[in-house]
Amino acid sequence: MLIDLKIKNYALIEQLEMNPSPVLNIITGETGAGKSIMLGAIGLLLGNRADSKLLFNQEQKCVIEGVFDISQYNLKEVFVAEDLDFDDQCILRREISPSGKSRAFVNDTPVTLDVLRKIGENLMDIHSQHDTLQLGDTSFQLNILDIYAGNTSLDIYAGNLSYLKDYNETYRRYKKLEGDYKKLTDQLAQAQKELDYNTFLLNELEEINLQQDEQEQLETELKELENAEDIKLKLTQAVQYLTESEFNITSALKDTVQLINQLAAFSPKYEELRTRTESCMIELNDVAGELEDAERRTEADPARTTEVQERLNTIYTLQRKHQVQTIAELLEIQRELEAKVGSVLNLDNALSSTERAMKEAEKEMLEKAAVLSERRKVSFGQFEKELYTLLAELGMPNARIVIQHKAAAPTATGTDEISILFSANKGAQPQSLVKAASGGEFSRLMLSIKYMLADKTALPTIVFDEIDTGISGEVAVKVGRMMQQMAQKHQIIAISHLPQIAAQGNSHYFVYKHDTEDRTISRIKKLSEKERVDEIAHMIAGANPSASAYKSAKELLSL
């Protein structure tokens, strides 16, 4: 439960602190005094988005802090799931800087707004007038029935999962597989369209059996074949110069070696020159031998020339076709085509595997949906009966509640479409809440539903924002008593404008405006018994309550 709330520098609130009673707390005050501002601040504490324009002083940061006693609630797993320290006291804090930057903390640990919401939704439920309007929405009604049927409760099914969450996880798994299946189907269809063309291109490349460096080799060979006669002539001439002519080089070198050898006796330096000259002669003899071999091998070969030209033309044609310059690029394209052609088979296998998994997930989803649906339907009669009883106590003895149900395609919430039908008057046919319920009837419906759900949830604190709209008199007294009964298991904080409800509170807070020299400030104070009498008398009779109004106020408090 909330044991301390501090609000600093928010809207009309310069600084505010309250320490609510663990049972029923009533907040009253004039319209515009700041009651809803307090709710806005609490909403920020529970993860709502912030706006720096709402700062009381635009040069200072806004701080909202709530201290909760959670020792009596089984919430440790919630904190462990978010990797947060757990203690009997939980401190939520929200800070908004003048620049608009927002920071959130749980037990002084920085957290994201998402984590703050997850923790906050386990600590406090705020019922606003917007929730009353939501009552006409069928998805909101389905959520109400799930809470009533225990479908959202933990530790009752599949480990720590609720029926609804367990189904929802299976549904999400099925939808993901369904999406994967559709994606693979589209990919396979596209791949099959391109399969014939890609297979043709691949076969064309595979048949030519390209080798990594053959283009350069073929181009070199073709040049030699096309110039064979000229090459052979020049090789012959070179051999002659080296070995066969009258003044050939090798003979001259041989003579040179002999001359130098004769000089070796005169000086060691000539010995070195002789050795170097002999090395040149040996090298030239090797060169001459290789030139002779090359000359013998070089022959004009028209057939081979044609073969090489055709091979190169094929390579050039493929390069132009695929808009590349090298064989390496053609081989890369060949590998890509192999992958594309092979992927059709792989996609087909993946599609079959995904289809099997999708059907298994669908079967599991529908089985869990059937369990969820049955639990809902079993609760319909008891829900209608209990809600009728409460509405009768709140001055609507002729009210009728009928839950209309029909099967639907699977969604995140199951395979059920429900609508709560209502009629307030005898003989009137039940209709959808939007058409059948007035403002006051909506308020009584919502309060009755909240009363029914209070025992089904483990929320420490419930906040009501003017849930008593449209009611008065004895009905208001009964509403106050219902809140008192709820407060035996939950801390209740109720913003009210009715004296009959204000008198039921264990603690009574009064929100008022205080005018300073330069601006208006919203403040709150806990009323003493005497101040409660004054406030309730003012709520009964206005600014100048009569003696009878004071008497009525005391009577209400004595009740």
TrEMBL record:
Nucleotide-binding keyword on record: yes
Molecular function in Gene Ontology: ATP binding
Gene3D superfamilies per UniProt: P-loop containing nucleotide triphosphate hydrolases
InterPro entries xrefs: DNA_recomb/repair_RecN, P-loop_NTPase, RecF/RecN/SMC_N
Keyword Ion transport part of the UniProt annotation: no
Assigned GO CC terms: bacterial nucleoid
Parts forming coiled coils: 167-238, 344-371
Pfam families reported for this sequence: SMC_N
Keywords: ATP-binding, Coiled coil, DNA damage, DNA repair, Nucleotide-binding
Domain RecF/RecN/SMC N-terminal: 5-515
A GO biological process held by the record: DNA repair
Its job: May be involved in recombinational repair of damaged DNA.
Family: Belongs to the RecN family.
NCBIfam families assigned to the protein according to its UniProt record, in alphabetical order: recN
The name this protein goes by in its record: DNA repair protein RecN
Organism whose genome encodes this protein: Pontibacter virosus
